[in-house]
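Hi,

Apologies if this is the wrong queue. I'm a grad student, and the batch job for Heme-binding domain-containing protein from Algoriphagus aestuariicola produced an output file that my downstream script rejects. I'm not sure whether the problem is my script or the file. Here is the sequence I used:
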Amino acid sequence: MKKLSLLPVAAVVGLLFFQGTTKPEVENYPVHPALAPDMPANIKAIVDQKCYGCHNAESKNEKGKAKLDWDAFEAAKKSKQMATKGKIAEVLEKGDMPPAKFLEMKPEGKLSEAELATLLDWSASKKKGGN
Ligand code: HEC
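Support response: The file is valid. Your script probably expects a header line. Output copied below for reference.
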């Protein structure tokens, strides 16, 4: 009985801890330094938390890396950046990213509605770097 009654407490503590470590919209979240320095801070924070793990130059996720490498984003020509943003908007609209299989194992990787809206807004914008 005693052990059981501790379970909800453990769950709440776990949840609090998780939220404390993954605040995606904090302005100065310590993002990976290589991640597009000119991108707006709120976009970087979301990408860092929810996309970067699979989509960076050193990622072990070969498929993900091949399709999108955030480390190469900043240096890319505007036309390339626009194409990438278009792809991003596309997968977000379809709800394809992060991949469903991954979310089954890691539901906390899902974009919140606010994050989704912010990323969509950014990916639909036409400016280089996305300011
Ligand atoms: C768990 C790993 C993982 C995470 C997290 C993830 N992706 Fe992906 N992503 C992939 C893989 C794998 C592919 C390749 C899918 C394929 O080819 O079928 C991909 C493909 C893409 C593509 C290319 C689609 C195309 O058809 O060209 C875009 C754009 C993309 N992801 C954006 C994102 C964004 C934005 C996020 C964060 C919201 C994100 N991804 C999070 C693994 C991931």
